[in-house]
Design brief:
It is a single chain. With 131 residues, the chain is an alpha+beta fold. It has one domain. The chain is 18% helix and 14% strand. Strands 1-2-5 form a three-stranded mixed β-sheet, with no helix packed on it.
């Protein structure tokens, strides 16, 4: 898979751009509705994708080598699904032919998140709508 094909797997949900908390005892991942400061929550896209690691050093660049070890990726993520040998969901733009089906299906963060700059306590912002 070349770089362009790999990038096309992104469905535009932006779930990977949410602040996540890990329970140190159980390893369970909890998602919050706090979005990365670079996320345009209306478009569900990074505002500085090319340079994101300069601004957000802990931003992970996904690749075929690290995707299987990233237990915090949502179960609906195309990168994860492909790595697990599973099919893409009906709402994925590569299946539906429409980049808006991810939003219509209620999978994306559009209209559901706050920017991290607000300074909210992440433990008070845990959500249950990520699959």
């Amino acid at each position: 898979m070349n770089a362009k094909e790999w990038e096309s797997l992104c469905d535009g949900c932006a779930l990977c751009c949410l602040l996540k908390l890990e329970d140190t005892d159980t390893g369970k991942i909890a998602y919050t509705d706090i979005a990365c400061k670079l996320l345009d929550s209306g478009k569900c896209r990074c505002t500085d994708y090319k340079n994101r690691q300069r601004t957000v050093p802990d931003c992970i660049i996904l690749n075929t080598k690290n995707i299987k070890s990233l237990n915090w990726m949502p179960a609906t993520c195309a990168y994860r699904l492909i790595a697990e040998g599973k099919n893409l969901a009906w709402w994925h733009p590569l299946v539906s032919g429409n980049p808006n089906t991810v939003h219509q299906a209620g999978i994306s963060v559009r209209g559901r998140v706050i920017p991290e700059q607000r300074g909210d306590d992440p433990e008070e912002r845990i959500i249950d709508w990520v699959k």
